[in-house]
Amino acid sequence: VQLVESGGGSVQAGGSLRLSCAYTYGVYCMGWFRQAPGKEREGDAVIDRDGTTAYADSVKGRFTISKDKDLVKNTLFLEMTNLKADDTAMYYCAAPPDQYTYCNLDPTAYRHWGQGTQVTVS
Q: What is the pLDDT of residues 67-88, one digit of tens each?
């Protein structure tokens, strides 16, 4: 499984960003995770094969996870609005090891990771 994130950048507080993650076929559950300097990696949002989503309390109402599939590629998105300084972190998309893994926000359940994209909110 290959995952490639894009869309990070610098934005002022209250602004918006849209992250994208291109991924290969065969993934069922996918998630967005963040890691700030000196902190552990934590889950922000996940989306299951049937489109069911789950969010961390800190991002509910501000972030939206979605996915798109066409004949050429699969893409996972994270629409981030009303960004806060605390949202500053490296953001990763990730997939679990198999289709049987319960789709959840625990990063230890995920095996496949992208290289990350930096989001800085000032």
A: 988 767 789 999 999 999 999 9
Tokens found for residue 68 = 């798109």
Q: CA 104, CA 56: separation in Å to the nearest integer? A: 10
Give the C-alpha separation, 47 to 75, whole Å: 12
Residues of the chain with pLDDT under 50: none
How distant, in Å, are the alpha carbons of 50, 72, 95, 102, 114 from that of 24?
A: 17, 10, 11, 20, 12
- Per DSSP, what are the bridge partners of residue 32? 45, 93
86 backbone φψ class: left, alpha, beta (φ>0; ψ -120 to 50): alpha
Give dist(CA 87, CA 104) in Å, integer. Answer: 20
Rounded alpha-carbon distances, angstroms, from residue 81 to 28, 55, 86, 110: 26, 14, 13, 25
**Whole-number Å distance between alpha carbons of 42 and 60:** 14
